[in-house]
Amino acid sequence: MHLEPDVLIHGVSPPILLDMALQLHDINQSSWSESHEFSLEDIAIALGATLAEARSVTEALVADGVFARGEGHERGYFATQKLGQLANASISKGITRQRAEVLLQDVIRAAEMINADPEKYPYQVTCLVVFGSFLTDKATLGDLDIGLLLRQTVFFTGSEFGIEQRMKIDRSHYNRSRAALRLKKPKLVSLHELDEVVRIGTPYRLVFGELPNVPAAE
Question: At what angle do helices 40-47 and 51-64 cross, to 10 degrees?
C-alpha cells in the first residue's frame, strides 16, 4: 500500500494513520485476523485524538474496509487484511512501473550474487516474493515491496568469542545480505520478512528461489 505524503486521508496525515495501524498491531502481538478486536478508545489513543474525532475517522475507515464491525465482537471493531496492509504502507511520491520493474530485476540479480558467494554472505536467499502495488495495473507505484526469506548456510565457530559476540557477528552477516538486496535505495525498495507478508494475508508472487511450506496467497 502506498500513501502520498501530502495527501490527508479522512483528515488525518499518512504518518499518523500508519502509526495507528502499527500501535494496534502491538496491542495484539500476533497475526492479523478477525479475532483482533479494538474499542473506539483503543483507536483514539493510537490516533492521539478525542473520541469524537476518532469516531469520525473510524467510520470512514470502516467504509474503506480497514476496520469492520460484526456480531460477537464486544470491543466494537476488528482488524481486516487492509489494516495489516496499512501497517506496512510506504509514504512517498511513488515510482513509475517501469522503474519498479528495473529495480525488481536488480534485486533478483543481487540475490543471485549473494547466493554465489556464501563466504561473503553466510545468509543466503531462500526466496523472494513481490507484493503490494506491483501486482496491480497502476502506472505509479508507492515503492517496490519485496518479501524475503534468508537462511544461514555458513556458521561462525570462533571459540575465542562468547555467545553474545557470535550472535552479533551472525546479525551482522544477516544485515549484510539484507542490505545488498535493498540496493542502497531504502526509499524505493521496501523489504519485509516473508512470514510478515504471509501473516497479513496480502497477495504475493514468487520471483526468486523456492517457497517454504507456507500457503501462497492468490
Answer: 100
